[in-house]
Fold this protein.
Amino acid sequence: MRKLASIREISAIHPIPGADRIEVAQVDGWECVVQKGEFQVGQHIVYVEVDSIVPDVPEFEFLRPRKFRVRTIKLRGQVSQGLVLPLSILPDGAPCDLGDDVTEVLHITKYDPEAQQEAMLTKQPKQPTNPIVKYLMRFQWFRKLFAKPKRKGGFPDWIVKTDETRIQNLPVLFETERDKGTKFSVTEKMDGQSATYFLHRLSKRKFEFGVCSRNIRLGEPDNSSYWMVAKKYDIENVLKSIIGVHQTVVLQGEICGNQIQGNKYHIGGYELFAFNLIFPDHKCNTHEIADILSPFGIKTVPILEDGKVLPQTIAELVEYSKGKSTVRKEQKREGVVMRNMERNISFKVINPDFLLAEKD
């Protein structure tokens, strides 16, 4: 589970040109604006990540105008991501060793509109009010035909969910791979909703096909974007065509389009941008995914660069993430995803300009 609030250490403090009352505290790969003189290098603090929702208590009253959400902001020209708080914010007896997770202690939750949309998919149908329908609901044959639940079960435990870690939380990995000169492929991070489709071989000719959102498996076909994409691209038969001798095949991608994240790319209907194609013995790189899926009309996430080595600092990598989307040039891209398939390393770098432009 993601640590939204944790005990960390301030590694550096830098001045902000022209600012007398504020300065920048470095926490791992994050830069946070703090009051000048309030914190020192080496001090252990509570760090609260962006996209956290803090409780409505006096200590966080200053966040009321932002609906208690920790957001990326800019002060005196300096981007600030996250909150730096003194350990005194913690109640007595709370864990306070370096690395400890204090998310639950502080009653902090994640801002996650996609999870809210998922919750709507799992709601059971309302009880019928029509007396004839209420009567027929007594019979199993009627319930089986007309009252099937949308949700079939939890997300399959043999499939890894799609949730890349931000590079700012991986400073040790960054320095290690930078010093090794590790080369990465770079793709654009699309701002949509994550979808997973899988095929599981039950016998020589019988298969189980599954449709999942980021966190749940959807049971019966419906008019959700996940099933509409499955039908549009005939994904079940696509997976049957490429599974070969394997026991399973998993396709993961980002759905963009109508009413998803404001449809920033101005897509009519829905489009799937694939970023993972996983067989039991290997995971395809983006070029391989394109070669396999393009004959079926399925796109991959845009490939931006191959053989990219890491710069000297995370700040430079964040700067690299900035730019326009290749899908719609008027739109700031959300960021980039960097992968090295040989060593199974991947992470995301979010464009702060995208976050600053984001509207509630």
Remarks:
- Residues 113-154 form one domain.
